[in-house]
Request: fold
Amino acid sequence: MNLFRTTLAACAAIIIGTAAIPAAQAAGGGTKPPEYPWSFDGPFGTFDRAQLQRGYKVFREVCSACHAMGLVRFRNLSQKGGPEFTEAQVRALAADFKIMDGPNEQGEMFERPGRPSDAFPKPFPNEQAARAANGGAYPPDMSVLAKARNYERGFPLFLFDILTQYQEGGPDYIKAVMTGYEDPPAGTTLQPGQNWNKYMPGNIIAMPNVLNDGQIEYPKGPDGKPSAPETAKQYAADVTAFLVWAAEPHMEQRKRIGFQVIVFLTLFAGLLYFTKKRIWSRLPEHAPGTH
Amino acid sequence: MSGPSTYVPKWGIAKWMDARLPLPRMVYDSFIAYPVPRNLNYFWTFGGILMLMLVSQIITGVVLAMHYTPHSTLAFNSVESIMRDVEYGWLIRYMHSTGASFFFIAVYIHIFRGLYYGSYKAPREVLWILGCIIFLLMMATAFMGYVLPWGQMSFWGATVITNLFSAIPLVGETIVTFLWGGYSVDNPTLTRFFSLHFLLPFMIFGVVILHVWALHVTGQNNPTGVEVKAVQKDTVPFTPYATIKDAFAMICFFVVFSYFIFYMPNYLGHADNYVQANPAVTPPHIVPEWYFLPFYAILRAVPDKLGGVMLMGAAVVILAFLPWLDTSKVKSMRYRPLARQCFWAFAVTCVVLGWLGSRPAEQPYVLLSQIFSALYFAYFLIALPLLGLFETPNKLPGSIAESVLSKIKGGSAAAVGAAAASEPNTKG
Ligand code: HEM
Reply:
């Protein structure tokens, strides 16, 4: 096996040697975000209802001024596995908005209060309007944003991720970007409308820092104190959790059914294994290495 | 292998049918009485697993097609609405998208099984070539399927790959315009890809039938590579022996498959494909799905576009010539000490090429891609043709039954000696 061992060793050396290169390049483009302990991590992870409700509040009061979330409907907010607002709360949340509907029997468009079946209204009528209001940059739709962002894990981490089920690259990145605003390094001049962000690839982002301590009021607990710290960090975590739910509204159901399916299939495989052993043992000269 | 049929219809209706269209006889002969070598290991269960994956892709695909809208402005959101609003739509879609990856995992194991045990050699050349055709069709199907959700990678992957055809002299540009249905990847491209993506799996199904037919004519190869000599001693009937073993392997495969569907459905995909296609924004790295990466690395190893395309095509097509490139009469690598090392070096080469395919096209990756592409072809064009002439193979067992029996004896004699007993060192 000498030839094989030599090739293997050579390949390992090459991979380890060059694996350092992308890490070094990435450092120039955006730092790797830290891993945050999300409630929805891992095989039994679920959303924290209170966190999703707070996240909705942050989205509603801050992000929705610029970002659309066109695929989510108000009624989704009361569905199982989500923020689970009550239906009355959802009707009230929807009625906060004026929705353009029509045409009516006279052929005219009209405004009416929102209903649970309505999609979240968009802040701008079209992409051009959104760009015009944001100095030429387009705030992306947030419906699937948490799945649409990731960062490179690199070798060998990407292999371990299969076992640890790490798949929160999107939320870790978004949370990091929201709190990653910094002064640009000396010698870098930014154009008007550009901001420096430690985690954004290329470091230059058109979105300004929008989360500041104390900016959003959280619901008060019985002791009169807010139910969660009113800090930029907490806002970022909460709104990111909300974005993950928006992108993957059936995540809880998926993980729950997955556990049942895997337990069932494993037991089934066990039964089949013993049946198979039994059947093969009927062969007179049953050979050990052959099953 | 198929030999004279041993089917005896029991009931009147079966006799009546047997005299008109002997379908029950065919099923009986192919899936019940069909003799399989008794020494097959679990690598031989992947054919059945592939069959199951094909059926699974077709069923989930047909359901997806009921809800999917093939239009450039609607496709992305229609896939998302499958995920959100269709009952268990997320399950169907994740089964289909993860299923494509697992289809390829299974097919790569199946192909490497054939490479290791020399299953491509006489009399199984036609069987092997049919397999190569299935592989090619699978690649075309998966490529076009990946375009359907109309994300950024869908769009830019389609642009890069269809553009390759423009390298063909004289007719290249015309072919590309024809593929696109216009002057860029756009709605006509999407609709024709959808139509073909729906069609090709059924063509695969047809070739699979031929593949299984050819298999049942020559019979299966086995880990010793020694052909069946006495059906009584060397084989067991397909049912119950192979059926139960295949069923066990399929369920094990589905445990791993389920782990990905339910726990990491997007691990094998690319985040950029959740951004709707935008012809005005090129993603920083355009990377194909993992199963194409080794071929993508070979494509980019050549600085010249036409050369790259030809080399990549050759990397796939060369598989079909393997029966004639490998000059050794001995099938199984078990008895070919040098070829076995080359095989493992080749397997590692493929993995390294896959990794290189995921890197940006810059140094040192380009140079490494060139070295490893050379190693890839060296296996087919240097190692296998020459080794058959110079290598001294180890002694082959006289028959399948003999190898099975020697294994039992070796196993009971001494645990340490077992490996040695199954691979005798005597040169032959
Ligand atoms: C050889 C078997 C097949 C393979 C390898 C395959 C592969 C793929 C792949 C890679 C995708 C993209 C998945 C994604 O990123 O979302 C896809 C999508 C799709 N496929 Fe297939 N497919 C197969 C069979 C079929 C069949 C038989 C049908 C229908 C008759 C079908 C219908 C669809 C549809 C409608 C989509 C778009 C929806 C989506 O993106 O999830 N597929 N396929």
Observations:
- DSSP finds 18 helices and two strands in chain B.
